[in-house]
Amino acid sequence: MKLCECKEQSWISVKDDIKVPPGAPEIHKEQVLKFIHIDGMYSLCHDIEGKIVHLVAWAEVEPCKKPTYWGK
Prior knowledge:
Helices cover about 0% and strands about 30% of the residues. The protein is built from no helices and five strands. The N and C termini lie far apart (about 25 Å).
């Protein structure tokens, strides 16, 4: 499913189309993120360290459970 179809504040696993804004932290395939919301063509997400990352709104993702190692 596309990221823009996911429920806000949900957990996602990135499956494909890993594009980020220039200068933003990289996102890797299969990376688990907490999806906060869409902001234009990019999203606001948090990685497992609680850092902000931005994934394109049309990225292919899969809903997943909260990771047990999530500390934030």
